[in-house]
């Protein structure tokens, strides 16, 4: 059963977004004529999704993370995302909101009416929009060559956050590893160890569905759906996870583009499309060897919900309730991961074995 | 005095006898346990503070004024964290004890309220402004968001 969509943002003028949606559609069509149109068909869970890029550069930048989801037998898409930039196509930018002086560069401006969402990060030159009724979405950026490194690693997160609830799923800030019969979500804020846990499993028999964002299908049984085949390298990973490529970091400690790698390049046999969800695990960097312990659902909800809800708009009660509902059905655990990382995969495998018994 | 939950910027969910509250505007989240959960649920039902105190006094054994003081302190914490908004004087409506199955009173344990601020950087670095569509996206490009 599809989750109810989050309620609309503040009161809107009737049909206020109709014109804006059509302007985006027209702008994309114009860009598609000016630049080479590239189409990719992927499948998220069972849902066919079509990506339409105005330009090769954009297609290379923003389709790479979906390579493991390529659909060899494309069907009528349940979502079509139209992607263009102004630098390559020469089309004028869509109207962007202005920000007060001093606003952080990451400021998002959001508006919505019934079934239509617009979000822009004007300082980054980005706009996302989604229209539920036509199953269409748009992603515009000012220049594909100037996208921050995290966009190619996890493209269209905002659009997926709007679309997934329409098909009974949620976008979750979590890593996920497991087996075809079932796996775990690894939840927590940055630095909790979830990415380290997930990437440590690449040399094991466990499958990898993502290290930062995945979707969870709620019905008929909870199931992890892989979205991105990227992995994010952190400063301590070269010592902890020697099987990974060496990350490159700027002098100020900021992550550079090279700190993202694509798992299907180096570990193609580990990438998967998803698996049934058997447990939700909150890692923490603590102790001298991996240790699993049962946790209360509220403790794990606190690790899962704020880090997801604070990164996406709109954040609504419905999404928190859906996550709490998930924890009512799925057992929750803590996982201390302070010791050798090669002991993490067998610990997760053992947990999955115990849950299956 | 009545208070209302400061929605939609405040959302909450109770699982396993514990309530998790997220203040989306400030990037803080909170854990309530024990009698704090009962106070929060009373607020969600729109009950006045006095009603919540009377209900707790029917269920818990405590020294005179202890429950009232604990609830007042908790509500002050909720106000400071912008989880609730004071709405003025409300009507105290408590069903007669005879109609309630309160059972034997158990010793009162003060409410437990824990604040977590480890994720507020997300909101500080990437704040969100929800705006009316009359100002954006289809109006003039220099429409201010009020940010």
Features:
heterodimer, A: 357 residues, alpha+beta, Rossmann fold, seven-stranded mixed sheet, five-stranded mixed beta barrel, 11 helices, 17 strands, 29% strand, globular, disordered N terminus, B: 147 residues, four-stranded antiparallel sheet, two-stranded antiparallel sheet, 4 helices, elongated, disordered C terminus
Task: Describe this entry's structure for a reader.
The complex is a heterodimer of chains A (357) and B (147). Chain A is of the alpha+beta class. Chain A folds into two domains: 16-167, no CATH class; 169-356, Rossmann fold. Chain A is built from eleven helices and 17 strands. Chain A has helices at residues 16-34, 56-63, 86-89, 150-153, 157-163, 194-200, 237-240, 263-266, 297-309, 317-329, 344-356, and strands at 37-44, 47-54, 79-85, 108-113, 116-121, 126-131, 136-141, 169-179, 182-187, 207-210, 213-217, 223-225, 230-232, 260-262, 274-284, 291-294, 332-336. Mean pLDDT of chain A is 90; it is low at 1-13. Chain B is of the alpha+beta class and 147 residues long. Chain B has one domain (2-125). Chain B has four helices and nine strands; from the N terminus they run ββββααβαβββαβ. In chain B, β3 (18-23) and β4 form a beta hairpin. Chains A and B meet through α1, β4, α9 and α10 of A and β2, β3, α4 and β9 of B.
What's the short version?
Chain A is of the alpha+beta class and 357 residues long. Chain A has helices spanning 16-34, 56-63, 86-89, 150-153, 157-163, 194-200, 237-240, 263-266, 297-309, 317-329, 344-356, and strands spanning 37-44, 47-54, 79-85, 108-113, 116-121, 126-131, 136-141, 169-179, 182-187, 207-210, 213-217, 223-225, 230-232, 260-262, 274-284, 291-294, 332-336. In chain A, the strands form 3 sheets. A 7-stranded mixed beta sheet of chain A has the order 1-2-3-7-6-5-4, sandwiched between helices. A 5-stranded mixed β-barrel of chain A has the order 8-9-15-12-11, surrounded by 5 helices.
């Amino acid at each position: 059963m599809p989750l109810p969509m989050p309620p609309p943002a503040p009161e809107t003028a009737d049909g206020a977004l109709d014109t804006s949606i059509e302007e985006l559609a027209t702008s994309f069509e114009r860009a598609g004529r000016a630049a080479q149109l590239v189409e990719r068909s992927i499948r998220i869970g069972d849902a066919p999704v079509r990506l339409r890029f105005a330009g090769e550069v954009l297609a290379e930048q923003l389709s790479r993370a979906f390579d493991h989801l390529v659909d060899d037998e494309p069907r009528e898409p349940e979502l079509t995302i139209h992607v263009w930039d102004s630098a390559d196509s020469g089309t004028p930018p869509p109207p962007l909101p202005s920000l007060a002086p001093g606003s952080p560069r990451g400021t998002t401006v959001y508006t919505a009416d019934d079934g239509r969402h617009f979000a822009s990060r004007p300082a980054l030159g980005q706009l996302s929009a989604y229209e539920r009724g036509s199953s269409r979405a748009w992603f515009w950026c000012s220049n594909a060559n100037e996208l921050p490194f995290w966009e190619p690693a996890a493209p269209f997160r905002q659009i997926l956050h709007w679309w997934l609830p329409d098909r009974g799923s949620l976008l979750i800030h979590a890593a996920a590893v497991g087996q075809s019969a079932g796996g775990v979500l690894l939840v927590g804020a940055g630095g909790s160890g979830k990415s380290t846990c997930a990437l440590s499993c690449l040399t094991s028999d466990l499958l990898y569905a993502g290290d930062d964002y995945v979707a969870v299908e709620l019905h008929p049984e909870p199931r992890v759906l892989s979205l991105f085949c990227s992995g994010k390298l952190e400063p301590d990973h070269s010592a902890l996870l020697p099987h990974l490529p060496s990350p490159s970091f700027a002098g100020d400690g900021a992550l550079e583009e090279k700190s993202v790698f694509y798992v299907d390049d180096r570990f193609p046999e580990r990438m998967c499309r998803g698996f049934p969800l058997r447990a939700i695990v909150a890692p923490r960097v603590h102790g001298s060897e991996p240790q699993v312990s049962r946790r209360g659902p509220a403790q794990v909800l606190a690790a899962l919900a704020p880090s997801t809800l604070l990164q996406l708009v709109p954040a609504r009660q419905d999404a928190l309730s859906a996550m709490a509902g998930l924890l009512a059905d799925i057992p929750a655990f803590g996982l201390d991961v302070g010791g050798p990382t090669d002991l993490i995969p067998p610990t997760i495998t053992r947990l999955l074995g115990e849950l299956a018994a | 005095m009545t208070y209302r939950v400061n929605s939609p910027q405040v959302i909450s969910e109770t699982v396993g006898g514990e309530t998790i509250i997220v203040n989306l505007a400030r990037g803080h989240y909170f854990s309530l346990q024990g009698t704090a959960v009962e106070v929060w649920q009373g607020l969600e039902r729109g009950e006045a503070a006095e009603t919540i105190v009377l209900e707790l006094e029917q269920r818990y054994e405590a020294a005179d004024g202890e429950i009232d003081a604990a609830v007042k302190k908790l509500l002050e914490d909720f106000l400071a964290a912008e989880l609730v908004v004071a709405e003025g004087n409300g009507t105290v409506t408590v069903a007669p004890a005879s109609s309630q199955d309160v059972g034997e009173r158990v010793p009162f344990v003060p409410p437990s309220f824990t604040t977590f601020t480890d994720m507020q950087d997300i909101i500080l670095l990437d704040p969100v402004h929800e705006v009316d569509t009359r100002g954006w996206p289809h109006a003039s490009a220099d429409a201010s968001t009020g940010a």
